[in-house]
Amino acid sequence: MSLLVVGSVAFDSVETPFGKRDRMLGGSASHFSISAGFFTDVRVVAVVGGDFGEEERKVFAAHQIDTTDLEVVPDGKTFRWFGRYDYDLNVAHTLDTHLNVFAGFQPKLSQASKDARLVFLGNIQPDLQRGVREQVANAELVALDTMNLWIETTRESLQKTIEVVDLLVVNDAEARQLADEPNLIKAARKILSWGPKTLIVKRGEYGAAMFTRDGYFAIPAYPLESVFDPTGAGDTFAGGLMGYLSSQEKLDEAALRRAMIFGSVMASFNVEEFGTERVQRLTHEEINQRFTDFKQFTHFENIPFDRAVRAAQ
Amino acid sequence: MSLLVVGSVAFDSVETPFGKRDRMLGGSASHFSISAGFFTDVRVVAVVGGDFGEEERKVFAAHQIDTTDLEVVPDGKTFRWFGRYDYDLNVAHTLDTHLNVFAGFQPKLSQASKDARLVFLGNIQPDLQRGVREQVANAELVALDTMNLWIETTRESLQKTIEVVDLLVVNDAEARQLADEPNLIKAARKILSWGPKTLIVKRGEYGAAMFTRDGYFAIPAYPLESVFDPTGAGDTFAGGLMGYLSSQEKLDEAALRRAMIFGSVMASFNVEEFGTERVQRLTHEEINQRFTDFKQFTHFENIPFDRAVRAAQ
User: Fold this and answer.
1) Do B261 and A300 touch (CB under 8 A)?
2) What distance in Å separates the CA atoms of residue B103 and residue B310, rounded to the nearest whole number?
3) Does A61 contact B at CB distance below 8 Å?
């Protein structure tokens, strides 16, 4: 019983107002699996080039991430992303993208991967995501991420893919664009009508919201005085979310709610340093402390207003 | 023991993509007091012209709002605001403003008003706000609203006023502008260092957050499928907040948290129809239903992740 992620493994070069890093381990599958590894056993399906070395393997190994299905193209190069953030850290400016071996990525699943209980289809071309989805017919929960590029260029295929997953995890601009509807609540209802039982919307510094057929749950973000590098925050959130779910026997609404908190906790650590640096050295005590903080930040007593009592005073 | 509000009473003419209304009862003191009237006894200090008639007085009377200190300038005209909203209902476009009698507003407080337990200084010129604050020396809690105009034109006076109040209620753009700091958490810390014990930040569709010296509380907005007219939402929020506090014996953090929920509930009703129309005919059952909904939307079980348990399974 394990969690499978299909996505990208990359080398990222990132500049922010606070510094820069060249050739850090990045990509959706990396951020996701390192985050999820704190909660469950994770298997990665991705592709890398011959330049993917011992140092990177050690990071996965240190988090007990199974890389059996990490395909290596010895004479190819690993996906590279070059990005910059200005003071508005909400907006990533892509300076350059070298798809390299990722351009020809065809996810190949071993039997163990096909038997995964939970599956996260990271942000790759929707046809590829659907191909993987068909190979994990017995998965208890399949989640999907996507991006504006696929909404704009492969909308039909993307919608077919959304129809066959259980959970969609996107940011709020993507949810509105996907549904072609500016009101998020209406957008959510439309997306759920296509098939998924659950929609989780990431809202950056404003937190996250979960929509189900007849349920709604919303949380603020963990309050941070400084955000250093937001790269991978969404995948780190998804990793905490899915990793926690994978540790739970029952995938009910109560578990999903706690999973969103763990996802937010993991994302809050991710943005505090470059790349996966902060998350790599996290402890369970630190994770649980922020989980408990979240309870403290959001709790209020359920005491309705009683006019009769007031009038009598 | 009552709640005093000092602010504007106006006639608003509003156009939205969904319709228009001419000469509705508006202004900060109107929205605030009608909302607060559901929870406590409210007194209004404001100024109107001879055109303020029986119909408007009836609205205040219907909510048991004390208008003894509502000054009438018989040969003057009531403040008028003309505004428009496009599909982005977050942005109000002012088409015209006739200050009329509001231009010479000098708040005059009766002894009963000076004895108010709680005071809300609505968005007026900061010197006037401070003048009122000095007259309510025994108030248990004085709250302040302001706007970008005063931050830009009377920053020094505004800061002196902020220094002598207990609670500041602003939106997030105002908080960042006031502190000249893009990070909201840092901005909040800076503002609290000036004197107020509490800062409440309104974030529109993203909810609201409360900062104290060593506390943080954040809530989402009530999820609405359609927003009709956001005029007065901020004052309606403040009315629910302060009105509920006024009904409580202890003004502690727990009461403030519940007060924020009631403020959000009242604001959620306000935006569903033009002006004060929806709030005017609210029932306590409707208010308490949304309060309970808020609990449902934000609750999760406080169960930290237990790696040992997982590993043992």
Assistant:
1) yes
2) 68
3) no
Would an 8 Å CB–CB cutoff place B312 in contact with chain A? no
For A196, B156, B177, the CA distances from B152, given in Å and listed in that order, are 48, 10, 9
Q: Does B183 touch chain A (CB under 8 A)?
A: yes
| Angstrom distance (rounded) from CA B24 to CA B274 | 8
Contact B218, A207 (CB under 8 A): yes
Q: Touching check for A302 and chain B: CB below 8 Å?
A: yes
- Distance from the Cα of B65 to chain A's closest Cα (Å) equals 15
CB contact under 8 A, A305 and B205: no
Query: Cβ neighbours of residue B273 under 8 Å, at least 6 residues apart?
Result: B228, B229
Say yes or no to pLDDT of B190 above 50.
yes
- Report pLDDT digits (tens) over A246-279: 999 999 999 999 999 999 999 999 999 999 999 9
Across A55-73, average pLDDT: 97
Model pLDDT for residues B198-209, shown as the tens digit of each residue: 999 999 999 999
- B209 - beta bridge partners? B201, B218
What pLDDT shows up at residue A124?
A: 95
Number of C-beta neighbours around residue A147 at 10 A: 16
Surface-to-core class of residue B158, CB atoms within 10 Å of its CB (0-12 exposed, 13-18 middle, 19+ buried): buried
Q: Could you report how far apart the first and last alpha carbons of chain A are, in Å?
A: 59
- Map tokens 């260029």 to a residue: A153
Q: How many Å lie between the alpha carbon of A182 and the closest alpha carbon of chain B?
A: 9
**Which amino acid, A155?**
R
The whole-number average pLDDT for the span B50-68 is 96
Which tens digit of pLDDT belongs to each residue from A179-218?
A: 999 899 999 999 999 999 999 999 999 999 999 998 999 9
Give the closest residue to A115 by CA, choosing from A165, A69, A179, A46.
A69
- Residue B303 burial by Cβ neighbours in a 10 Å radius (0-12, 13-18, 19+): middle
Which chain A residues touch B302 with a CB distance below 8 Å?
A: 291-292, 295
- Which residues in chain B have their CB less than 8 angstroms from residue A175's CB? none
Specify the pLDDT at position A71: 98
Strand A19-26: give its sheet, edge to edge: A19-26, A10-16, A79-85, A92-98
**The two structure tokens encoding residue A96:** 């350059």
Please provide the distance, in angstroms rounded to a whole number, between the alpha carbons at the two ends of chain B: 59
**B283-298: average pLDDT:** 97
The Cα of B71 is separated from the nearest Cα of chain A by a number of Å equal to 28
pLDDT over threshold 60, residue B304 = yes
Cβ contacts of B39 on chain A, cutoff 8 Å = 305, 307, 310
Buried b (16+ CB within 10 A) or exposed e, A33-53: bbbbbbbbbbbbbbbbbeebe
CA distances from B77 to B11, B58, B195, B270 (A): 10, 19, 37, 26
